[in-house]
Hints:
There is one protein chain. The protein is about 35% helix and about 5% strand. The chain is mostly helical. It folds into two domains: about 5-140, no CATH class; about 145-220, no CATH class. It has a two-stranded antiparallel ribbon. A hairpin with a 2-residue loop joins strand 2 and strand 3 (about 85-90). Residues about 10-20 have low confidence and may be disordered. The site of zinc ion has 7 residues, from loops. It comes from Solanum verrucosum. Pfam families: zf-RVT (PF13966). InterPro entries: RVT-Znf. This is Reverse transcriptase zinc-binding domain-containing protein.
Amino acid sequence: xxSIYESQILSKSSSRCKKxxxxxxxxxxxxxxxxxxxxxxxxxxxxxxNCSFWWDDWLGGATLANSTTDISSLNNATIAHFLxxxxxxxxxxxxxxxxxxxPSILNTKVQLVxxxxxxxxxxxxxxxxxxCKSAWEICRKKKDTTIINSQLxxxxxxxxxxxRLWRAIRHKFPTNETLANFGVELVKCYCCIQQGWDEIEHIxxxxxxxxxxxxxxxxxxG
Length: 222
Ligand SMILES: [Zn+2]
């Protein structure tokens, strides 16, 4: 049984196949970490009971295989295998399932719909449909919001300007201090009568041209 996560994001790999064949160790670690995070949010709507009894998280919380060491990854018993006339076969359950899990399973009501495959539900979205955006929100590592970043990437500031300012703050312009790292010969600016070094501080604050701009806006703001 293929989960929506595996079918839509990780179609070329799963925890039970190909691991390490094309990926580095770090890739596999990140993959496993993200897979665990995402699978927590996948539920199952049981129809004909064809999803994996042991390996799909249809009960909520975790797969049943996680609760026992006796189940092989090759055990592909379906939910239907544990049903009789649409009801749980308690005798069969008690032969294989850890006792603590039996009440939860018996309390799970199943309304069989013959001929319709069980379907995965993405619990994050209202409609239950999987979206890469919502999966990314779960997996991504969020950093704390800083005042500078929240003001820099403001909805009322054009992206081009925000990006330019971001480059200035992060020293991403090809100015002297950056080019010096590549062994490029330093040059002086073209904005001042007494030329200064073409560095970020000079271009945006200390140079004549920068001074003129700052003065213009400072004057207009009083
Ligand atoms: Zn200058």
